[in-house]
UniProtKB/TrEMBL annotation:
<dbReference type="InterPro" id="IPR023582">
    <property type="entry name" value="Impact"/>
</dbReference>
<dbReference type="GO" id="GO:0140469">
    <property type="term" value="P:GCN2-mediated signaling"/>
</dbReference>
<feature type="domain" description="Impact N-terminal">
    <location>
        <begin position="165"/>
        <end position="271"/>
    </location>
</feature>
<protein>
    <recommendedName>
        <fullName>Impact N-terminal domain-containing protein</fullName>
    </recommendedName>
</protein>
<dbReference type="InterPro" id="IPR036956">
    <property type="entry name" value="Impact_N_sf"/>
</dbReference>
<dbReference type="InterPro" id="IPR020568">
    <property type="entry name" value="Ribosomal_Su5_D2-typ_SF"/>
</dbReference>
<dbReference type="GO" id="GO:0006446">
    <property type="term" value="P:regulation of translational initiation"/>
</dbReference>
<comment type="similarity">
    <text>Belongs to the IMPACT family.</text>
</comment>
<dbReference type="InterPro" id="IPR001498">
    <property type="entry name" value="Impact_N"/>
</dbReference>
<dbReference type="GO" id="GO:0005737">
    <property type="term" value="C:cytoplasm"/>
</dbReference>
<dbReference type="Pfam" id="PF01205">
    <property type="entry name" value="Impact_N"/>
</dbReference>
Length: 281
């Protein structure tokens, strides 16, 4: 990678970060125009807690996103900040291994860890006392997740990633017996990999004939109309008992309608591979 390409990818990374965290990061257009390696921005968790991000020449292929400095004023904030920075470092390393832009992913993970920090083992987030309704909701969610984890293990097959202009597309498929399998199977897939959890979109569709009745549904996960395209693919192939997921990691460059071709193609390939594997078995 030459210096100019590295610079453009780093600059696009910062632009996405500014769009997502306009209150946490302050940078005007003049500063953005004058950037040169190495350059830094400050991410504010609170008025007294912050960290400094640094981009170096070669990012993101030969240099990861760095933490150059951090600041916290109280001992409690220092512990809370360390939880956030641990999440940041973990995601920065994983993005580096994937040769992906990291700022948006790392800052999202760090901010989530900061907000979800639990002090002294008390199940109170952000030092607020949840009311009874919130506590009942948390209890119900915990039971639901436990039930999912106790469900039979689903055998997922994952296809080869497809790369186009820094975006990555990857498909996954598993067998389902009924509509009741969809959510626990999805949960199992997402819990199997932090990389999948950090995907920009995890769109899916499923189709199954249950007691003589065809059932089907889909979800775009923010990629408008992607789920319906996957559903159409399952329909025209007359698939039965199948849940297909396509993960996309956005690379900073808009692909237009080409993204739908990639989503459909990786889904079609994993369905072909899945069917061939089961026939061979």
């Amino acid at each position: 990678m030459d210096s100019s390409e590295s610079f453009e990818r780093a600059r696009a990374d910062i632009e996405m970060l500014l769009a997502a965290f306009d209150t946490e990061i302050q940078m005007n257009d003049v500063e953005l125009e004058r950037l040169q390696f190495p350059f830094q921005v400050t991410f504010q968790f609170s008025p007294t807690v912050s960290c400094v991000l640094e981009w170096r020449e070669g990012y993101p292929l030969t240099e990861p996103l760095h933490l150059a400095a951090f600041r916290a004023s109280t001992s409690h904030d220092k512990v809370r900040l360390e939880a956030a920075l641990t999440a940041f470092r973990q995601h920065a390393q994983e993005c580096f291994e994937l040769q992906m832009e990291a700022a948006l992913t790392c800052c999202s993970a760090a901010l989530q860890a900061w907000n979800e920090y639990i002090e002294d083992g008390n199940h109170i987030t952000n030092n607020e006392n949840p009311d009874d309704d919130e506590m009942r909701l948390s209890s119900n969610e915990a039971v639901t997740k436990t039930e999912y984890l106790m469900s039979p293990s689903y055998q997922w097959m994952t296809g080869e990633p497809l790369l186009d202009r820094k975006s990555t597309f990857q498909a996954h498929v598993c067998n389902i017996q009924s509509d009741a399998d969809v959510q626990p199977a999805l949960l199992q897939l997402l819990q199997s990999s932090t990389k999948l959890q950090r995907a920009t979109h995890n769109m899916y569709a499923w189709r199954v004939c249950q007691d003589g009745v065809w059932k089907h549904d889909n979800d775009d996960d923010g990629e408008d109309a992607a789920g319906s395209r996957l559903a159409h693919l399952l329909s025209v192939r007359n698939e039965n008992g199948v849940l297909v997921v396509v993960s996309r990691w956005f690379g900073g460059i808009h692909l237009g309608s080409k993204r739908f071709a990639h989503i459909t193609n990786v889904a079609r390939q994993i369905l072909d591979d899945y069917k061939a594997n089961h026939i061979a078995a």
